[in-house]
Amino acid sequence: MDVLLIGGGGREHAIAWKLRQSKRLGKLYTAPGNAGTAQCGENVEIRDSDIPALVGFAREKRVGLVIVGPEEPLAKGIVDVMEASGIKTFGPSGAAAQLEADKAFAKQLMRSGVISTAEGRVFDRFSDAKAYIASRDEPVVIKAVGLAKGKGVVVCDDPAQGILIAERIMVDRIFGDAGERVVVEDKLLGEETSILAFVDGHSIYVMESSQDHKPIGDGDTGPNTGGMGAYSPAPIVTEAMMDRITREILVPAVDAMNRNGTPYKGVLYAGLMITSGGPRVLEFNVRFGDPETQPILMRLQSDLLEVCLAVCEAKLDNVTLRWDPRPAVCVVMASGGYPDEYPKGKVITGLKEAAQLDDVAVFHAGTKLCDRGVVTNGGRVLGVTAIGATVAAAKTRAYEAVDRIRFEGAYCRRDIADKAIRRKP
Ligand code: AMP
Ligand code: GLY
After folding, report:
1. How remote is the CA of residue 343 from the centroid of ligand 2, in Å?
2. What residue numbers bound the domain in which 138 lies?
3. Which of 114, 138, 182, 394 could connect to 329 by a Cys-Cys bridge, CB 3.0–4.6 Å?
């Protein structure tokens, strides 16, 4: 079966790499892809937001399945358009994708499903947001309701900073129209985890747990990014905790989506804070996480293509997934300057030497192939991923691979997975 994969990040290279292992895979097209996906199939020069061109391509090539990586095309309804053309497509409908694209919708859904989340309110006028924030004694979190590439959330130390940030988002529009409205939320304390599940409308199959590292700096300091590294499993998610998360969050969310008339299909990603009172939802995403997908798929032993088809055909009940019990760690190498301005076009060396190490996969994110070789082409450049007998061993191996790779201005955190090592040495 031929497949069209949409996106061009580290997540998409990991998906392409995993699909390549499937006996059922024929041709794999990735639009627009990167230098990594080009090694797994054919890149197609169509932007992931150009829905008419993507549908035209999928029809022309008669692909058997389309898999959508990023949130923007999902929120714009790519799945509806593909399916209207009779093309099987992995991902939620545009209406269901509002669970990520509209944080006010997500809050309302959680309320209707009695799903634990931070106390919060939605505002469409700055003066109202300001009055509310001023009335809070506790630190607050300000979130642009729309999509902002994972950067539309600011955790504030005190109400004064909260008011300043709300003004920057709502009045100065630092995140554009995504900041037309904001959610003001109480700050939750605890450790974060990402729980991803396959959902086929009714049935849920929870994947192994994982943990992202959002801030740019070691020790979780500095501004948030798309994610600087991840590991799987997350030791904080014990079997009992996973049961609770499934019962109290995932199942009620899927039920609430059905009651809402927006049935859910694809990957449901719950970003959670494990607080002293139990798991609380920070956000829902409607797709595979990036970079969580890199360590998760490195551990998946089953055929990803079969699972995606089962989701589309509402046959998830028949699926059992096998996982490598060993932990995996992904370290993101970024362009100097990210998450702010950064240069592009820097030549990357050492990729082969890194990939030669046992139990290592170097997933490309912002890379492209040109006459000078593989060059940087984005903020997050590579997701260097390793699997090992322990988290510590996987971490050591991942950094060994990182240290073989060079490009001007390369930056990575040096403490990826330390939280897991402290919890389960
Ligand atoms: P989100 O995109 O909503 O997951 O937010 C991005 C990041 O901001 C999360 O991964 C958390 O680190 C942080 N965050 C979001 N909401 C809260 C909250 N209510 N309390 C504490 N931290 C939060
Ligand atoms: N790793 C965070 C995200 O995928 O949104």
Report:
1. 23
2. 125-180
3. 394
